[in-house]
Amino acid sequence: MDFKELRDFMVKTQLIPRGIKDERVLNAMKKVPRHLFIDESIQNMAYDDMALSIGEGQTISQPYMVAVMTELLELKGNEKVLEIGTGSGYQTAILAELAKDVYTVERVALLANRVEERFHSLGYNNIHIKVGDGTLGWSEEAPFDRIIITAGTPRIPTPLIEQLSEEGIIIAPVGDRFSQQLLKVRKSKGKLLEDYHTPCVFVPLIGEHGWKGEG
Ligand code: SAM
């Protein structure tokens, strides 16, 4: 299977027609091998227009959703980014292509361990990972220029707003347990400017400032 060709086709048919314009984002989506972030048995579906299972009841996000969220972050290359919900590490790798440093927090230790090896073998040395409740952020490394939450949450966790730098941006799927909308928040002169975007469906963000349990 020619995965490079499938990636180019994905960008051409799933991302550009739906309005993704940032050339840096499109190039990162053409470059990062999504098939290496999922189990070998489903690699033939790696560039399909859908989220896929990564085990532990979790998913790798749909390519379009990864592209939209990344574009909304307005990355120029110098940013320190915090990601909550590492999952397969695919979104993390896209961020690592486009920002200076990426700090990523995953609640499920098994997923985090798997991903650490993956980042190493793909040669990413600007990704820092920790296991824990990402709704608390990563206070030792704050402030962050950008924060991305890749699980559905009833609200943006307060610690994350506190750990966002002035003129920083947070992107998160906000809503109920079964459907959300992407919310973009910009911190500007001490105020929070909010803007709602694409509807979406994510697995829940479980933690002290997210949903309380699996059920
Ligand atoms: N962006 C990821 C990718 O491309 O593979 C997909 C992330 S998946 C939709 C959501 C992830 O958030 C899951 O791996 C889940 O375990 C994790 N998660 C849920 N609650 C969390 C929390 N409080 N802190 C950190 N990770 C959390």
Structure, described:
- The chain has one domain: Vaccinia Virus protein VP39 (Rossmann fold), CATH 3.40.50.
- It has six helices and nine strands, in the order H-H-E-E-H-E-H-E-H-E-E-H-E-E-E.
- Helices cover 28% and strands 28% of the residues.
- The structure holds S-adenosylmethionine.
- S-adenosylmethionine binds next to strand 2, helix 4 and strand 4.
Rounded radius of gyration (Å): 16 Å
Q: CATH topology, what is it called?
A: Rossmann fold
For the largest beta sheet, what order do the strands appear in spatially?
A: 5-4-3-6-7-8-9
Q: Mean pLDDT, as a whole number? A: 96
The tally of helices reads: 6
Dominant shape: globular
Beta-strand fraction estimate: 25-35%
CATH superfamily: Vaccinia Virus protein VP39
Q: Under the CATH scheme, which class? A: Alpha Beta
Number of E-type strands = 9
Q: What portion of residues is helical?
A: 25-40%
Distance between the termini: 39 Å
In sequence order, what are the helices and strands, one letter per element?
HHEEHEHEHEEHEEE
Q: Structural class from helices and strands?
A: alpha/beta
- Low-confidence parts lasting 5 or more residues at pLDDT below 50? none
